[in-house]
Amino acid sequence: MSTALWFILFFTVFSVVRLGLATLFFWAVLPDDDHCPNCDAPTIRVQSRGWNLVMPWFRTSYCMECRWEGMLRHTKAPIPPVPPTRTAVTASRRAPTAPR
Question: What's the domain range around 46?
Answer without folding.
Answer: 33-76
